[in-house]
Amino acid sequence: MAADMRAIQPESLYKLHLECEERPDGRKLDAARATVVTRGGITTADGSAFCRSGHTSVLCGIKAEVCTPATDAPPDRGWVVPNLELPALCHHRFRPGPPSEAAQTASAQLLQLLDASGALDRTQLCIEAGQAVWVLYCDLICLSHDCNVLDVALLALSAALTDLRLPSAEWDATEERLRVKPAERTPLKLGPLPLAATLAVFDKETLVLDPAGDEEMLCEASVTVAWAGDSMVLLDKTGGCELSLEAMDRCIALSKKRSLELKKLLDCCTQSGEVEKDE
Amino acid sequence: MISADMKSEEGDLDEDTINNFTCELGVLSQCDGSATLCNGLTAVLVATFGPVEVRQQRELVDRSSIEVTFRGPHGVEGVEDRRVEQLVRSTLEQCVFAALHPRTAVSVVLNVLETDDLLLLSTCVNAAVLALLDSSLSMKYLPAAVTCVPVGDRVLVNPLPSERQGSSGGSVTAVYDTGSERLVACRTAGQLSAEQLTSCLREARRAAALVRQLYRRAVAAKFSKEPRDPWAGPSRAEDMPPSWRRLGGQQTGEQSTS
User: Fold this and answer.
1) How far apart, in Å, are the Cα atoms of A245 and each of A205, A257, B73?
2) Does B187 touch chain A if contact means CB atoms closer than 8 Å?
3) pLDDT tens digits, residue range B1-12?
4) Which of A191, A266, B38, B185 could bridge across to A119 with cysteines, CB 3.0–4.6 Å?
5) What one-character DSSP code corresponds to residue A99?
6) pLDDT-based confidence at B229, cuts 50/70/90?
7) Are A58 and A142 in contact (CB under 8 A)?
8) Start-to-end CA span in chain A (Å)
9) What pTM was estimated for this model as a whole?
10) A–B: how many Cβ contacts below 8 A?
């Protein structure tokens, strides 16, 4: 009967779940899915991480290339190019073809989050000012889409940045060429990394953390809040139903709590270097 | 041309708060609705067509499909433009009475003439609403967008670059339903603390009421029978963005005081 109702009246079925304060997958309203982070899975990349939260999984690989610095920017800055791909294999609503609007906006959001958090000082990517800088191509591929891709992608990107090891490179001024030693590698010095939490809004007041399944489609609005340490680096509520400021305050508090959990997970992962689970 | 020379009832917010909010409706002849909005150093021109025929893949059976196209002031289109389109489209989807026009599309085209990046999002939203007002499309409510920047203990609304000295780089663009005073959309940039965000949102709620009054004046001016000089911009030439001065606005701007 529940399966029939889900096909015909999914909103009503979901509202029944909310009245019992339990979601279809058994979680409480403010509980997130179990998250797993694995670093270093791609040996051919300079840094990589795989992050899975429930059925949503994103793989991030970072390749560093050398480039001349941009002419319209200071000559001692490298740059970072995050690109999230939502291929047809991750969900039936994505078709093969040019990047969808969802993928483009997510890629832009990831870059804004990295910039706003100040996690990566671009001068670290400089090899020789005016001659050679590193460009980090961060390719994120969503392998399975079960809502809330941005949070998982951001976690994968942050973990991959901690895994990144840049080869040592020197600019030889006499010969005017670059000498790279791929065997000697150093990690980056990173500031507080951005970590996001998304909440779905139902009935204008009920907040549900980490939407999954039908929740993203059924919700009236969704709010994404990203934190880097104690500073908020993004609050994005694009459209959807109207929210009172009191509901917004609750979103902020819930997302702060979730970002602390994710930070603990990321710190454990960085220290131990192994697979880390957060239940 | 409407200039922000009015006072709010509370007395705390006045014309300087909205900073040279000059707009004009009906500037383009070939589209259903159009508007230009100049806010500080940001100027946006919007054209809207609709309801018009929709492509089959975008057709919605129970309502109109809102399509937003954004063209930045320079450069090739990038992923950042998609974010602006996403915010404007999701705001308009909520406020436009789309159920009245099923199986059609409403197309909104935003062209940026000039920008200082900070006020871009709020100017785009407000200009789109003005263009839809010009096209007489039915709307459930009027959203109003403002950008707030916390500087020290204060919150500045729609500040000019010179006024932003001392800010830590964080800003909040908030779109409010001016009727119910609830938040429709919000996007932040840079770093903020939770307290700064809350005070910005509250200040934006007050400022959105001023923007709504400016909408009323814009529509009233459109239907007034007084002769209008379309190039009568802000009364001080130096308040106009450079592109408007190049269009010849400077000469008339110094003469008229509209």
Assistant:
1) 10, 19, 34
2) yes
3) 343 433 333 445
4) A191
5) P
6) low
7) yes
8) 31
9) 0.88
10) 94
